[in-house]
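Aim 2 progress update. The chain analyzed this quarter is reproduced below.
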Amino acid sequence: MANNYNFALFEAGAEQKGAAVPAKKNAQLKVVKKKREEVQKEMRVTGRRAVALIVLCAMLFAPIFYFIYAEIQLEGVSRSIASDRSAIADERSENIRLTAELNALMTLDKIEDYAENVLGMVKLGAYNIEYYDFSGEDRVVLSGGKTYGNTGDGSFISRLLSYLL
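Predicted structure tokens:
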């Protein structure tokens, strides 16, 4: 099959050099230019539609992607909370164990044993008690033989003098 195309018409500057273009070829050239303009216009419209479609898809899928991202973050925080709760439970059981161990070390028998054997303390008995008799008169004896206090006469003036002096 033979090709009957004349590509000379599409060369740059063919019209400007003053080349004589027959009328039939000129009409073909106008048709080709129109088709080229229509294709370029259609490509611009198609490009705008593609951009609009991409923007629309982005607007529609952005909430979905955000929801997925939020779920991932929530799952991470939930795992962190679960591990923290597990750690708290472990620490509480350790606290209970240490409290029981401390209570076992601090029984009354052990405290008495430590006080007697290590500190040398003895239990209070009847022989350790000293009794004081406060039923006598109130007086203070100073060096030099002076005595202050209740002399027995009980007068108001003597009590006042003993208080002031």
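The helical segments are 23-105, 108-117, 156-164. The mean pLDDT is 80. These observations will guide the mutagenesis experiments scheduled for the next reporting period.
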